[in-house]
Amino acid sequence: MRALLFAVLALSACTTPVVEAGSANQAPLPEHIRMDLEQREAALRQPGVRAAGIGETIDFGMGLRIRPIEVIEDSRCPQNARCVWAGRLRLRVDMSGSPIELTLDEPLMTPYGSVELVAVSPGPWTDWPEGGKPPYRFGFRHL
Length: 143
What we know:
The chain is of the alpha+beta class and about 140 residues long. The chain has helices at about 1-15, 30-45; strands at about 50-55, 60, 65-75, 90-95, 100-105, 110, 115-120, 135-140. The chain has a domain at about 50-143: Tick-borne Encephalitis virus Glycoprotein, domain 1 (Sandwich). It is about 20% helix and about 35% strand. The strands form two sheets. It has a four-stranded antiparallel sheet. Strands 2-3-4-5 form a four-stranded antiparallel sheet, with no helix packed on it. A hairpin with a 2-residue loop joins strand 4 and strand 5 (about 100-105). The longest helix has 14 residues, at about 30-45. The chain is globular and about 45 Å long.
């Protein structure tokens, strides 16, 4: 029995620890990315903006629910690059049971009123440290 316990302990000591986002083992974010991320997260908390990640649902009331499903396109020009085209972000959402495509900063008239994808975090950068890019969060406004 002791031999089995010793073998289990020895094997568990050989495993690689899981690194959580934001842990001490993860490379720190460069200052320019950290500052941009803070600004984008603040934009998601602006009055009238409701935020959700992939698979999360926002209930605006009166039957309007939005759940981001997938990023169709994120061709936004990285902020530390030169681009001929600014690019865009297109997002597939479930809007009250119907699949809809939203494009960042382009309002869409719906039976529920105007809906707009107004903010996205994280921003486009070419130099994200490995494992440092957080999951997408999307900010929506309903008028």
